[in-house]
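DM between two lab members

TW: hey, do you still have the ABC transporter permease subunit entry open?
JB: yeah, one sec
JB: this one, 304 aa:
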Amino acid sequence: MGKRGGRLRLIRGNLDMYALLLPGIIFLLLFKYAPMYGIVIAFQDFNIFSGISGSEWVGLAQFEKLIHSDEFLQVLANTLLISLYKIVILFPIPIVIALLLNEVRRMFFKRTIQTIIYLPHFLSWVIISGLFINILSPSGGFVNEIIRSLGGQPISFMTDNQLFRSVVVFTAGWKEIGWNAIVFIAAIAGIEQEQYEAAAIDGAGRIRQMLSITLPGIMPIIILMLILRIGSLLEAGTEQILTMYNPLVYKSGDVIGTYVYRMGLGQQDYSFSTAVGLFNSAVGFLLIMGGNMLSRKFLQRSIW
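TW: and the structure you got?
JB:
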């Protein structure tokens, strides 16, 4: 009773703060939790005219169809490959940029570089896709004009299954690396300057300070961002790929998000696309839990 009374007094004393939470809570309830009722579609042969209550219940039939679908297995492989490429190649780069910018002493130069590298984040994927489709076009594209001038043959980057994943990873990095670096730059700003002063007195140079103070200081943020990135392993960039790919590169570029879009809206197979989406969410949840557990076990750091 004492603990409960203490909590009630805490709430009464901070009613204004709890009132500020209400809009966010209402938003989550209406747009995140209420729509979860639609998950039942994954266990039905959903008919848009009969609705959820009138559609036939088929149990796990949609998931059996999912497991035995060769097309879905290809889509799953594409999703995992593209996500792993983005983690292995793109995740360390913002950390390196943050570490290097922290060593820049001219504030004007530092702020200019920061502004230039994070500006692409504010462009939509529609604009960026159109930009790179033109740049990489085999007929008049800037890159292919350079290849021609060097005596080579034009390359169809956007229709070549061997190159399309590379284009996806490169454009994702061009758009988001600068913005992601801001998180690590902010984490570096929170490190106590006394540590650097003490290290300098002990004779540590800038590289040693970076490796012994800055990097360990932002390690909790690195672990947090990595766990969140692992949790979204099956989210390989649906919006990005949807605006860039075409039927010629479905074999290498079709991911779970675009597959759900094609099956749900394109073929109106709502039950199957919902089953795919539910599978995606369940795996994402397990990946976050597993990543957090492994981080806590081996690195003694975790989100919770």
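TW: got it. The first strand starts at residue 44 and ends at 45. The longest helix spans residues 270-298.
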